[in-house]
Amino acid sequence: MTDNNACLKMDDEKTEVGAVVYKKCSGECGLEKVLCKENFYWRNDKNKYNTQCKVCVKIKSKKYYYENTEKISEKAKEYNKEHKNERKEYKEKYYQKNKDEIKKETKQ
Q1: What is the CA radius of gyration of the chain?
Q2: How many helices (H) and strands (E) does the chain have?
Q3: Would you list the DSSP string of 17-64?
Q4: CA distances from residue 92 to 80, 85, 88, 96 in whole angstroms, order as listed
């Protein structure tokens, strides 16, 4: 188990003030924020924080979705066609497992 603070390396984009480490967001905001999991997503595959803050990542994701809605919808339809039986089995299992809750929700 590694300590996240031990993985931090100082470079041009990070500044350290006392025990607090700040990092400049490479996204649209460009703000310098405290380097922690509340402000930046942690990348386990690279063992470091993402370069863009969470706010910028969410904005970028929404922008991509609205610009590519048709493309995303087509991929979802294609996936649903290819996995029709698997989805049906999952829905049936889910219904059997949560039958009481589903019936309560539909009555209200």
Answers
A1: 21
A2: 5, 5
A3: ETTEEEEE--SSS--EEE-STTTEEEETTTTEEEEEEHHHHHHHHHHH
A4: 16, 11, 6, 6
Q: Report d(CA 28, CA 62) in Å as an integer.
A: 14
Q: How far apart are CA 30 and CA 52, in angstroms?
A: 9
Query: 42 forms bridges with which residues in the sheet?
Result: 49
Structure-token pair, residue 98: 């949560």
CA 32/CA 13 separation, integer angstroms: 9
Overall pTM surpassing 0.70 (yes/no): no
Beta bridge partners of 17: 20
Record the tokens describing residue 73, joined without a space. Answer: 């919808």
pLDDT tens by residue, 8-66: 444 445 666 667 889 999 999 999 999 999 999 998 888 899 999 999 999 999 999 99
pLDDT in tens, 56-101: 999 999 999 999 999 999 999 999 999 999 999 999 999 999 998 9
